[in-house]
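ok trying this again, last paste got cut off
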Amino acid sequence: MLRLVDILIASVISVLTLPVVLIAGILVKVHDGGPMFFRQERLGKGGGAFKLIKLRSMSVANKGAAITSANDSRITPIGKWLRLLKLDELPQFYNVLLGHMSIVGPRPEVRKYVEIYPSRFNRLLKHRPGITSEASLAFRHENEILARQENAEQYYIDVLLPEKIRMDTEMVEHLTIPKYFGIIMKTALQVLNVSTA
């Protein structure tokens, strides 16, 4: 049932936002000549790897930690606005259509971080990862939190990641249709609030 809803919502949003994605992608391309999209391997349902698609918000020579803080020098000027308005996330609706992701589900992680907490992630990897979740909403200012840490990646591993795993596990184990739509509504309101702020 939820898979059909995923496909319907993702199809509508993909069509409606296609002009935005194309314009943003052209701006990204014109800025430094690099690719419009950023693809990164993440682990999905069953532990299978897939390529998460985003509009590229970092420099072409992007190297370093898999996490990003608010003051990360790798973020381009255009990328800063894409991240602020969450436009960089729009191509993930194509991941939903391809069956890699759901709209609501635990955020997919890179293999490096999954291997730090294998037993905890085994429970999450029984479910299709999502574009949004209760943990995503709770840590919507994650970049700013990480920017205040002396060692951002270690703080992410020791503090943020375990709490996100806990929240996502609780969510998927008690996910109902009303909760699914509730999370989507909260996410939409959050994005609209940022866009009009």
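PB: full thing came through this time. The first helix runs from residue 2 to 32.
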